[in-house]
What we know:
Blueprint: E1 3-6, H1 12-22, E2 27-30, H2 39-42, E3 52-54, E4 60-62, H3 64-75, H4 84-101, H5 106-109, H6 118-145, H7 157-168, H8 180-189, H9 193-201
Amino acid sequence: MPTHYTMPGTCALATNIAIAWLDAPVEVETMAYGDHKKEEYLAINPKGKVPAVAFEDGDVLTEAAAILSWLGAEHGTEGYARDKVLGRKEAEALSYLTSEVHPDFGPHFAAETYAESESAQDEVKAAAYDKLRKHFDRLEDNFKETDGGWYLSERSFADAYLYVVTRWIEQTPLSIDDYPTLRAFRNRVQEDGGVKQALARQDMKPV
């Protein structure tokens, strides 16, 4: 059975949620923060990041978008084996969330990797918050266009990743209260049984 490696507070919660939604035969191993930099895990994923899925044949799959794509292809059920148009839209949404929104949280979580002095770090953070504000404005508008239900016309893995970034906003100066549709989405999603299961597996609680 493949093993999915995750860690509290990380984007690996999205892939953990997907495993729960699909009831996929994947073992979930939650590491303590810091274990991702230890030799034992680096032997599995030299990037020292989560998520990662280790297969019984020794192969390892990393990057959340790639793992979500594999989960959908390998364990997708009705509701995940969608038509080509929706499949493309899900890929687009995940690409945006993983390659644009997620990286723009970087200066907030680790400003020291972007600048040395405290004043420069403050400038980097301020610029990041401006970018994040634009992202959340765009996401809020997107939800208004889809009647506020899901990121797309039906539940998808993009919703699992969006749930993660709507949790992260709480750690920034931005407020989810400025985005009522996203706030309602987050409140609804974290009442989902699969989301509750994934949170419990990562020793996390709803916001």
